[in-house]
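Collaboration report, partner site 2.

Our partner group contributed sequences for two proteins of shared interest, and the home lab folded both. The records are reproduced in the order in which they were received, starting with the first partner submission.
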Amino acid sequence: MNAPRLFVISAPSGCGKTTIVKAILQRHPEFRFSISATTRKKRDDEINGHDYFFLTQQEFQRRIDIGEFAEWEEFFGNRYGTLKSQIEDALHAGTSMIFDIDVKGGLSIKRLYPHDAVTIFIEPPNLEILHRRLALRGTETTRQLQIRLSRVEMELQEGKSFKYHIVNDILEKAIADVDAIIQDSLTKS
């Protein structure tokens, strides 16, 4: 039996990270998806414990104070983080876990679980295409879009610390490349 792995997939917004993670989960239904905790308000179609663990600001802070997070960050006034208990439960069950996570969070997982984490960074073909993808998505206000774009340089720089790098120019190829890394990592365990 292969040892479980923590497949940490990070990218700047607009690089297709979430689409790639969803495709990998379809190919590997045996993997557990890392569900983040957040202080963000629950949307009508979201389920607590399935989409996120929805916490109050006070509860989130309490969990920070007692060291329950493997990583956390504040973005757009809301906090997001990964509970260590989620990771430990998967590893103890012998189940690989996949993360759709920002670059700083990904590096935190790598530091805490250096022997289990497989870090994969998704890059845009170029910055012009990335800007266009974000604008066409239409999911952010102009201000939110500016904030996301202001982080790209930092994310690309931090992403250099990831072991693997995939350019998402052709989505199906990027998915296949990520899956090949996963398959290879599982056979080496």
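Second partner submission, folded after the first:
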Amino acid sequence: MSAIRVQATVTREGTLVIKGLPSMAGHTVDVLVQDRLSRESEERYPLRGKPIQYESPFEAVAEGDWDCLR
């Protein structure tokens, strides 16, 4: 099964028309509708929603960078 990407605009009535699909008439296809704004934010922030694991959460960070501790 091959996948294609088509960009289309939803009308005021909430309908979407896609013409010229490379499938034969009568074939069953899966349709996924994704808002373009949500897809752009996923690409912009690839780590959003990913699990976070802290190795040593209570140890000092950049302790050597403080002049008063030298």
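Feedback sent to the partner group on the second submission included the following. The chain has one helix and no strands. The helical segments are 36-44.
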